[in-house]
Structures are given as structure tokens and as C-alpha cells.
Amino acid sequence: MTTDLKLYQSNGSPNSRRVRIFVAEKGIELPQVPVDLGAKEQFSEAYVAINPRRVVPTLVLEDGPAIGEVPAIMRYLDEAFPETPLLGSSPQEKALIQMWERRMELEGFAAVMETVRNRAAGLKDRAIAGPHDYAQIPALVDRGMERVKDFYADLEARLAEAAFVAGPALSAADITAFVTIAFATGALQLGIPEANTATRRWHDGLAARASFSA
Amino acid sequence: MTTDLKLYQSNGSPNSRRVRIFVAEKGIELPQVPVDLGAKEQFSEAYVAINPRRVVPTLVLEDGPAIGEVPAIMRYLDEAFPETPLLGSSPQEKALIQMWERRMELEGFAAVMETVRNRAAGLKDRAIAGPHDYAQIPALVDRGMERVKDFYADLEARLAEAAFVAGPALSAADITAFVTIAFATGALQLGIPEANTATRRWHDGLAARASFSA
């Protein structure tokens, strides 16, 4: 399936990867426009006009409007291309998947991001992405590591009782959890604990899908 | 419209209020079950069985499943009762409203909450709501006040160009922004700055609606 949409994204950005995997799972062909974060292209006038929050990814629709924020981009794609839904079909499924995807993001992904941004030497006054500068707070690094460990424990408990994060079927919640683990492993050297067998089994299953290499 | 749903909520909880206003705007009659946060009822075995995150509100469906997380509860209600949509109708509307509601929450509501939880004497080891204890970080109080001021500035810029937060029509994004302002005013004595005339005009219009007293 091809579209006239454009995805502004960066290969090194974990938030961009959430959308790339989502798109690959749905089988949508979505033209990508690279945004060079190393060259600070997200702060350029052209990009800020598309996304005033100065973050990637952004989905630009054929008729103009730009959609920022990963869950909102996923929402557009799942509503506009309802085949292979990754955010559910019934009201109940949609709500439960949104609940789980959000927990994976706020308890997992955001905890990794907070740790990384409060620690990286190059982000001294950029502890929160966006239009405003905030100084790093060193205490958030230790707390962030604790939060990621708690995330792994909670995820293990969940996957011991359900095949996928949001229940019996693969959904956007799995994508966010999977990217969170890759991010924590790469940036914080916090991989899945050895003893977390339910998480490992689930992770191996996802890693075997071609779409999860997107 | 009556339902067999039940909303577990607390009158003093700003997150509960987001759902109460949402429900009132849609004209749904939703039986409420009070959760006494003062008596720490959210930590009781009975409530944790409904919401393992130990937070209010939770929406319990007729056939059993419980939906936590405010945006997920709103999603269920808007999908199950599509009259008077507050999260949009078309894919584009749904995505743009989700984007704006999320920005209001992450940049506004969450900043107020973080400030309050890192400052309240009674929440020493409860800086983040949920199943895990995290110690307060005093530096987050000052940063939180800054973030709320930045939120007010960004909201003013938005409301100078649009009638409502997400565009031409009232949506869930307005509800979250409105409750954020009440929360910041009450808990942090940070009301809408005098000079923010677009925000004041928008706020007066919402405050005049009966549903916004819910």
C-alpha cells in the first residue's frame, strides 16, 4: 500500500523507530525524510515550522497538517489504514491497547529517555526535549536506572500472564516495549535480566519478525 | 444515556476530574464509585485488583475488564458513545486531538503533578504515583514551576491562533488544559498570567459551561 504521506524521522532516534516498526508491521509504504539530529536539523526553521516541539518523528499529511507525538502518529495510521490494526478494533480493545502502550511508554521508554538526557555530556541544558531549555538534574540518573529495573520486573509479571503486552495479540504496546528494551540495552547497558524468562521468550518472538528490524 | 459501566474516582483528584468533565460534556450517565485517597483506599487489595497502578480513576466495564489511564478511559467512552465526539471523528481529527491532548498533559498537567509530588511533606517516598516508591528530588520543584510557566506561554501562543486547543472545536485537549490550570492555581498558586488574554477568553468560555464544574 503506498501513500502520499511523509514521515520525517531519524535512523538513530528510538521514537522514530517506534513508528518505523509500526509502519512495517502494517505493511504501509511510507516515504521517509531524514532529519539529521547530529547537525541539529530539528532546530532549523524549516523543521520547526512542521514540528514546533523540535522532535522527531513527524508525519506530514498529503493535505498539509503535520502530526507530532508518536502515539498520535500511530493513531492516524491505524485509523487511515485499518487493515492489520495495531491499536485494536472494538472500543474495549482500543482502550486496553492505549492503556498498555501508555504504561510501556511512561514507565519504560520515558524512564530510559530521562536517564539518558540527564546524563549525556552534550545535553547539559537539554534535559527535556522541546522548545525550552532545562538543566540536567543528576539525581534523575540514579532514579532513572531504578525505574528501568522496576519496568523490567513489571513487564515480566505481565508477560507471565499474557502472550503479548496488551493481551492475546501483537499490538503497538509490544512495539513500544521492544524499542524501550533496545534503547535501555544500548544506552544504559540495562538488558533484560537473565531470570526474566517470560520477557525473553516474548522478545525472541518479536526479534524474529522482519518488521522489528525496521 | 445510561450505562452499566462504573467509574472509580475521587472528587479531589485532578485526573478524576478530567474524566468527570469528559463524561458531562458527552452527556453520559456514569455511576461513580468513590475511592477515598485520604484513607489510602487506592492501596487496598480490592482496588489494586482493579488497578495494579494504585491510581484513580479506573473505568470498569460491564463484562469485567478495567481500564486505567485517563486518555485510555476517554478513548473507550468516545468510541463506545460516538455522539458528541471529544476525540475527533476522522483519522486526521483523531490524531491531531490526541497530539494536542498529550501535549497539554505532558507539558502542563504532568509538570504540575511532578512539582506537587516532589514537594508535599506527606509524599516523601511517593514522588511518582504507582506501585513503586521513589524518593522526592527537591530540584524537581523549581524546575516544575519553570515548566508550568513555559506551559502557560505556549498555551497562550496556541490560543492566539486557534479557538480551542486542538483547533476550531472543543475537544479533550481543552479539558486537560482546563484541569491543569485549576490544578496549578490551587496547588501551586500559579494562575493564568494577567497578560495572557487569549487564554483568559478561552478559559472564561469553558468555565461558563455547566459540564466544566464536574
Outline of this structure?
Chain A is built from seven helices and four strands, in the order E-H-E-H-E-E-H-H-H-H-H.
For the termini of chain A, the CA-CA separation is: 17 Å
Taken from the alpha-carbon principal axes, the silhouette of chain A is globular
Can you write the helix and strand succession of chain A as a string?
Answer: EHEHEEHHHHH
Q: Look at the structure and give the mean pLDDT of chain A.
A: 96
Total helices of chain A: the number is: 7
Return the CATH architecture of the largest domain in chain A.
Up-down Bundle
Most residues in contact: chain pair: A-B, 39 and 39 residues
List keywords for this structure.
2 domains; 214 residues; Glutaredoxin; 4-stranded mixed beta sheet; homodimer; 4 strands
Task: Walk me through this protein's architecture.
The structure is a homodimer of 214-residue chains. In chain A, 50% of the residues lie in helices and 6% in strands. In chain A, helix 4 packs parallel to helix 6. With 214 residues, chain A is an alpha+beta fold. Chain A is built from seven helices and four strands; from the N terminus they run E-H-E-H-E-E-H-H-H-H-H. Chain A has helices at 14-26, 45-50, 70-80, 91-117, 139-159, 172-188, 197-207; strands at residues 6-9, 32-34, 58-60, 66-68. Chain A folds into two domains: 6-80, Glutaredoxin; 91-213, Up-down Bundle (Glutathione S-transferase Yfyf (Class Pi), Chain A, domain 2). In chain A, a hairpin with a 5-residue loop joins strand 3 and strand 4 (66-68). The mean pLDDT of chain A is 96. The longest helix of chain A has 27 residues, at 91-117. The first copy, chain A, is globular, with a radius of gyration of 17 Å. Chain A has a four-stranded mixed sheet with strand order 2-1-3-4. Chain A binds chain B through residues 53, 59, 61, 65, 67-69, 71-73, 75-76, 79-80, 90-92, 94-96, 98-99, 102-103, 107, 128, 130-132, 134-135, 137, 139-140, 143, 146-147, 150, 154, and chain B through 53, 59, 61, 65, 67-69, 71-73, 75-76, 79-80, 90-92, 94-96, 98-99, 102-103, 107, 128, 130-132, 134-135, 137, 139-140, 143, 146-147, 150, 154.
